[in-house]
Amino acid sequence: MADIRNNFVGIKSPNPFWLASAPPTDKAYNVIRAFKAGWGGVVWKTLGEEGPPVVNVNGPRYGAIWGADRRLLGLNNIELITDRDLQVNLREIKQVKKDWPDRAIVVSLMVPCVEDAWKAILPVVEETEADGIELNFGCPHGMSERGMGAAVGQVPEYIEMVVRWCKQNTRMPVITKLTPNITDVRKPARAAHSGGTDAVSLINTINSITGVDLDSFAPQPTIDGKGSHGGYCGPAVKPIAMNMVAEIARDPETHGLPISGIGGITTWRDAAEFMALGAGNVQVCTAAMTYGFKIVQEMIAGLENWMDEKGHASLDDIVGRATPNVTDWQYLNLNYVAKAHIDQDACIKCGRCHIACEDTSHQAITSMVDGKRHFEVIEAECVGCNLCVNVCPVENCITMEPLAAGAMDQRTGKPVSPVYANWTTHPNNPMAKVAAE
Amino acid sequence: MATGHFKEGIAGGRLSSEQYADNFSDLHPPLDHHEALVESDRCYFCYDAPCMNACPTSIDIPLFIRQISTGNPIGSAKTIFDQNILGGMCARVCPTETLCEEVCVREVAEGKPVQIGRLQRYATDVAMSENKQFYPRPEPTGRTVAVVGAGPAGLAAAHRLARHGHDVTILEARPKAGGLNEYGIAAYKSVDNFAQAEVDYVTSIGGIDIQNGKALGRDYQLSDLIRNYDAVFLGMGLGGVNALRADGEDADGVTNAVEFIAELRQASDLSGLPVGRRVVVIGGGMTAIDAAVQSKLLGAEEVTICYRRGQEHMNASGFEQDLAAANGVTIRHWLQPKRVIAEGGKVSGIELEYTAMNGDKLAGTGETLTLVADQVFKAIGQSFVPAALNGSGASIELEAGRIKVDAEGRTSLAKVWAGGDCIFGGDDLTVSAVAQGRDAAESINRALTSNGRA
What we know:
The complex is a heterodimer. By secondary structure, chain A is an alpha/beta fold.
């Protein structure tokens, strides 16, 4: 049986599935329910400084986009940090940690960007015996207007400064949570690293408007006729989050920096993909908010079964395994040739591959052969773009088949070269590092 | 003597009023908004879609379904009505399982087609409930067209002609318009007086005058129409019912299935509609199924369809046969009627003879079977009655007993077009009649606008 116990920057949990800092982790009641359901850890919803708590809107706080059967694909929220009293939160954190010592409790923090504010909050959090802190530099709405959250996360110098303050003022591990609302996520990651962070977690939510009410012409979610950009999350953001995780994992400056992966993780497979790209564990929110805490049971069993099947003994066997395979475009093998192949037995003859290729690509799929409705790849035209695979409604009906070295590529009329060759050496590249032979 | 449900002979009031209401409720209840969205999402928006090619009216099915999925049912309805102004009724009565849904790639792939018929009903219901009219009536051209028969072919022709600005007079023998939509469809396929609502919807374009109680050959002659109108469209359907050619078929209790179906559709109180305790239906098509199922739903204890050939030869679709079976109707094959047995002038049974193929010819084997029956329905097809056409003037050319037309619906007579069940080559489908009426109207319009008179 695979061992899925997790040790993330010294914080131990029975599995790598944590609940992200968000509404599900705002109070003891929810967190206890999560632990009972099997979650390995939580990041307690962000605490602010001592004083009157923030207030939230009392209209809709969430917006969403759905598939046809109301499957929730993306969620957006405009909730702020916890709107509960700091002392109440601290008391609950302490009690829950005491009652659930084997689970990870990390406390998310956001206070003004002055050292004294951090110096004030860190000891009181430490006193709860929480396992670590996460710096909320990502919250994209509301708090950023007050110079916190994403307003810090978008300025690498501020990140480095605050991380340093924290490292100097607490013994707890520091996880820096990054915003995706930035041009190059490697910059804030490097800054956090320079400041001495123990880890980064990403992504926080993405600035978004989920819809526009076409009767009132108001953005959604709509609060008394107005809307504000909220943070987008859920399955729709997963590809964006995975790229950012991979960018940090493979960046020479941050390589090896522990990453807690966040962004649309809904199933064990999503989690495994994040971990393969370099995440040491994962944080989940939207999936729990959609289906309840029970989903963790599927995640645990699914991850274990997959690891057993593949012979991976522990999480160390999978974390970062895909990172070396993420590269720059310029290093992709231009001599690799694949052609689409349509399994005629599986084909249901919807014709989507044909019309996609015909209208928008390379005119490489027939619609009619010998007067019959028939969809077949014209290899002499196929550039191997994979669009047909993506639009085909039948799984594995269209596959990309690599041509073996030496085989004739009917499109170019040349045999496939066995030699790896990329853009850096290509004769068409004016910047080619090696002259073409 | 048994009473109530099991009353002997042909009697009404076999069921409670709740049972009647339940039995004759909508066969395919309408999709609600969410169901329509989910079902429309199943459509793959196929290229050169097989469903569209299978539709006799060539409705752009992928487009109308996509319009439903994007929250545009009104646009969807227009896509449907552009090709088929009776799209509402066709959505209810088309044997989709042998047309669009049979060739749906999801039927081919997983045996579960997109429910095209129900989606079409959803969109057309939305438009009709809002009385959304898509086609403005243009300036009248001053051309007049007579349409004989207010059935699907006649209504489709009339609407298309009105769209082109011509004035249409529909002459209908029956008290109500709609043709088989009103008189020939099983009640549970078209509830809430839909046929009349559709007639109102179609004719509200303007320029269409329906005159009921006007029968060709009785109240007017074809030659009158040719003389008084710029063009004539014949869409009078089939007037005759084929005989059993069995001894004793004049007995009391032997009924034409089409009349029973019409009577049932017109009945305001189903409990007053008598039906036999033991019913035998002779035939193998949709009419046989409709009569048999409705007999059962009216409370008949035993209903048996007897068809003279095998299951694979039945005109009724697989879905219709399953519907009959699900309602407790027994379908027996390779049996032809030989003799209706009567007691005191009333049907008491029917003697049937087993059949077999003798080479490529069907023949009785001599072996017989007798079924107890107090009611026998004849549903072995209808025939065209040409007598009314030939009361005056030149006679119209027929082919295999029906009106001969060319590809545009033109008959052998100048100025006269025809479509629907009365023409040779018709396939007894509402949707085909609509296509023929529509296309003949386009031909008429071309004739009326190119050289003034047809």
